[in-house]
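Q: What would this chain look like folded?
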Amino acid sequence: MKILINALSGNGDALMFSPSLKILKEKLPDSRIDMLVMFRSVREMYKENPFLNEIHFIDFLKQSKLRSLSQVRQLSKNEYDISVNVYPANRLEYNVLNAFLGAKKKLAHHYLHTDIFRAEFFNDVLIDEVKDRHNVLQNLDLIKKIVNTEDKEAGPMEIYISADHQQNAENWIRENNFENKRLVGFHPGSSLLKNHIHKRWDKEKFVHLAGELITKYDAEILLFGNEFDLNNEIKKGIGNRSHIASGPDYMDSVARMKYCSLFVSNDTAFLHTSAALKLPVIGIFGYTNYKELFPWKTEYRIIRKELDCSPCFYNSPKPAQCKWSGDDEFKCMKNISLEEVFKAAGELLR
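A: My prediction, written as C-alpha cells:
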C-alpha cells in the first residue's frame, strides 16, 4: 500500500501527526508512506523520521502556480492508494490539492466551522471534527479509516535529531559554558499569519519573568524563534543572563532545546516541540483552545483566563479577531499576570 501524508501546515500541526504516523507504519510495516510539505522547517523536522520513505517539498507560497501544479502532477504519478490531509486543514486549497493528487481514497476532516466553498466534497472519506478533542486524537481519527487502532495507542509526539545536529548542540552548550547550569527556554514570539501576533504574552512580562527565574533559581534564559527583533529587545531587557538560542535551522534549535529544564511558550510550534522532547512546559494561551492544543504527554501547566468569550478562534482561514476594543482587546492574553506564570514555573522546577 502507498500512502501520502499531506502535512501542509506549520511545524506544530505537522508534529501532532507523528503519533499516528508511527501507528500506521507499525500496523502496515510493508507499506510505503511518503509526506508532502510546503515549509522547509517541516521537512527538516521529519527528515530523520524512520517511519517515512520520502518527503516531497513543494514551495506553494513562493513559486509560480504553474510550477506547483507541474510538481503536483509529477507526484500524482506515484499512484497513491490513500492520501491524508493532516488535521487541521480547513482550506479550499488543501481539498483541491488532495483531489489533484489523485489517490484512490482521499481522507480529510469535515469541520464544525466550514461551508460549501471549502470543497470538502473533493475527498472520499470525511471524518467529523470533534470539539475539544486534542489535535493528536483528531489525526488518529483519520488513520482509524486505514488501520484498526484506539485512542489509548496514541503515544507521545516524536522528533528525531540527527547526529550532526546533536553534536552541534553539544558544541554550542560547551562553548557557552552551559554545562551543569539550569537553562530555561522561552519562545515569546508567534506567527503573524491570521493576525496571530495577538498570541504573544507581553514582552515586558517575559523580561520580568526572566529576572525572577534568574534571582530565585539561578537560571540562564535561552530565547528561541526567528522573531529576532523581539528576542533582541527581550535580551536587552534581561541582560547578560539571556542568550539567543535559535540555530541556523529549525533542528539546530530543537537540539539545543533538549538541554532546557523548563520551557515557557505562547501557543506555537515551540510549545509542541518542547512537549515532544518531554520537557516540562508552561503554555500561555489566549483565544485558542487549550483543550485541543495542550502539551501532549509531558508535564505541563496551562496559564489562561477563563472568559465567556474564550476560546474564540477556530480552525478556519479567517484571521483572529476580538469582540472587545480598546484596552480590553485580546484581554484573554493581556490579563495573564507575571505572578501566575512564575508560580507555575516554580512548581515545575521543583
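The chain has two domains: 2-153, 164-349.
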